[in-house]
Amino acid sequence: MSELAASLERIVTALEAAGVSATTDARNLNPPCAWVTVADVTTPTLCGGYQVRAAVCLIAGDFGSGQSLGALGELLDKAAEVVTFDEPVKPMTVTPPGVGVALPALVITTTT
Predict the structure, then answer these.
(1) pTM higher than 0.90, yes or no?
(2) Rounded to an integer, what distance in angstroms lies between the CA atom of residue 50 and that of residue 16?
(3) Which CATH number characterizes residue 92's domain?
(4) Which structural domain range is residue 39 located in?
(5) 11: number of CA atoms within 13 Å, CB side?
(6) Structure confidence at residue 44 as a pLDDT band (50, 70, 90)
(7) Which candidate among 17, 101, 102, 107 keeps its CA 20 to 30 Å from the CA of 92?
(8) pLDDT in tens, 69-108
(9) Domain count, the chain
């Protein structure tokens, strides 16, 4: 497994341990859940390797604004137990493959 993939899988494992369904494969999203993907990668260091920052997209289902906000809050509470926030958490929408509608989401940027 590449260093990049391993970095993201560590985040997935931590989220799942906190009770959040998580994946790196957008085809496997089943909200409420987390999609872990690459935010950015730093230039390699003299010691070898590089630093990966992940974008953790917490995705609620299409429940209506009140219930979606509640679902996002629960996901955020659980994620906050196991990941650090490198930047303020940002709201957005995500359209998973096969869903066809934009779903409410929060994005956490974290160093792996």
Answers:
(1) yes
(2) 25
(3) 3.30.2000
(4) 3-111
(5) 31
(6) confident
(7) 17
(8) 999 999 999 999 999 999 999 999 999 888 889 999 999 9
(9) 1
Q: Which amino acid is at 48?
A: G
Q: Cα(35)–Cα(50) distance, rounded to whole angstroms?
A: 22
Tokens, residue 54: 């992940």
With b meaning 16 or more CB within 10 Å and e meaning fewer, what string describes 69-79? eebbeebbebb
Query: Alpha-carbon distance 112 to 99, whole Å?
Result: 29
Question: Cα–Cα distance between 55 and 108 in angstroms, integer?
Answer: 6
Taking the CA atoms of 68, 74, 79 and 84 in sequence, report the sign of the dihedral they define.
positive
Q: Which two tokens stand for residue 43?
A: 């230039």
> Tokens at residue 109, please?
């940027």
